[in-house]
Fold this sequence. Notes:
CATH superfamily of the largest domain: Nucleoside Triphosphate Pyrophosphohydrolase
Shape: elongated
CATH topology of the largest domain: Nucleoside Triphosphate Pyrophosphohydrolase
Number of domains: 2
Number of helices: 3
CATH architecture of the largest domain: Alpha-Beta Complex
Distance between the termini: 42 Å
Amino acid sequence: MHWKVLESKALFKAGYLHIREDKCELPDGRIMPRYYVIEFPDWVNVFPVTREGEVLLLKQYRQASGKVHIEVPGGSSDPHRHESMQEAALRELLEETGYEAGEIVKVGAHYPNPALQGNQMHSYVALDCKKVAEPNLDPYEDLELYPCSLQQVEGHLLAGDIDHSIMVTSITMALNYLKNNHK
């Protein structure tokens, strides 16, 4: 079932975004002359729960959709830092919320769009979070902290208010972990 890459060439590189074109041979011998792949580093999402049981969601405007989305803290791992996915998750949590986790647990990983991308989203639950600083956002990051109860998060998910598919998956993994491990 695997395709054999016969040729691969870089078409575009800007920051973390790289686009390549592959020429592939399929198992039955057919040749796919051009298959485009978007290369990103792996990403992390963190579902933070405070000591008081509050979930720290974010509201963030996304230019491509033209909408504000309900999300969890997260972002790209930084290949220049040589950080683990857990280190990236803790860094993103601190940068975007100003909170640190007392405990962090990986609850899964998934591919955001395996038809076009090879990177994975690593999902974490951060427990016993406490505020230690003010958020330290990237220069063009515009976030609003949106604390919720677990019931409110579930309500937003069921109502379709959380409509960013990567967030839906990561939040569902987190809620499943919490239901099965922290009653």
